[in-house]
Write a structure and sequence with these properties.
Elements lengths: L3 E3 L1 H9 L3 H14 L3 E3 H13 L3 H11 L3 E3 L3 H16 L7 H11 L3 E3 L3 H9 L6 E2 L4
Helix pairs in contact: 3-4, 5-6
Length: 139
Amino acid sequence: MDKALLDTDIFSHVLKAKDPAVIRHAAAYQEEFGAFTVSAVTVMEIVKGFQRVQRDDAIDRFLRGVAGIHVIPFDTDTATFAGRIYGDLERTGQPIGRADPMIAATAIRHDLTLATRNTTHFRRIQTLGYPLGLVDWRD
């Protein structure tokens, strides 16, 4: 198993613990690596989801749990790289939103495989020649 950056969708499934395949992969991953790795962008997306439905209790609970997770900051170099990916996607008529290029750039810059359910979007980045490794924990 490769060290991975968990995309927001997979991380949400890990937190919900309902999909048996995701639970299996998550348990194996934790046993091998000790902790999950996510981007600061994923933290933002999850907090935004709770904030939208005014769930301060859920935000507080989530943030307490993040203490045991490796959160990679979104720095200037990663932002620059994400901007290049985002610009290439738009230039070629393949936009996938703002957060996904940011998460992909984080994975690539830190030499991590991206664990995601949304392989269709992220394959567009691979098609452009970016060295993004993908894995879907639902398999």
